[in-house]
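Sharing a chain and its predicted structure for anyone who wants a worked example. Both blocks are below, sequence first, tokens second.
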Amino acid sequence: MTGRAQFIPALTKPNTYFAFYNEWKDKEGFWIRFFAILVTSGLLHALSFFAAFPSFRTISFVEAAKLSGMELELLRYLIALVGGAWGMIVPFLIINTGALFLYIFFRDIGYKALFYVMTTVYLLFILGLLFELPVQFVTGAEEVVQPLGFGFVGVLFFKHGFWQELLNSINIFTIWGSVVMYYALRQLSFKEKKYCLVVTIGFVVMFVLLSSLYAALASGQLV
């Protein structure tokens, strides 16, 4: 039986969608949609780097170069191009790393199916970036607060550092992704529901902690 790869139903009705996943020998259209995800991710990252250029201009070696207006514009587009390339690499890193981690606990599902699950979850990461872009274009900042999360609480109570990044990572897209992952694992695996829930929570907590720590260290504001 052949099923069509449809990410919208997988995100909105994961319990129903993944209940039929194992009945499909082939997922028609998956790789076309996956390529579209790569392109979209690259485009959004390019726009993000382009919008954040004012913050890059304050880097010491850029200021020391004393570039002309035309050279700065060229640099802005080059940075956006690099951001776009990075945006097409990021999905491979996140999806494969996530699938490999889950494979340790769910060998009965198989790596291919876990790759599909992580691809679905990554769509929410893209959606979150889309909501951040307007804020970036207004502020010109490299890192901005996620409008649909607890980032504003972090800004109010923590001046810099890890805790601010941690609260910013707790948003509607992280929670939504957790729900999608749990229902997908529960439907695809023979393991108990409690086991699926514990692994899902552990995965999300580890991802949030590591991404927050990385962001804090990259900005030089761990505390």
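Comments welcome. DSSP finds eleven helices and two strands in the chain.
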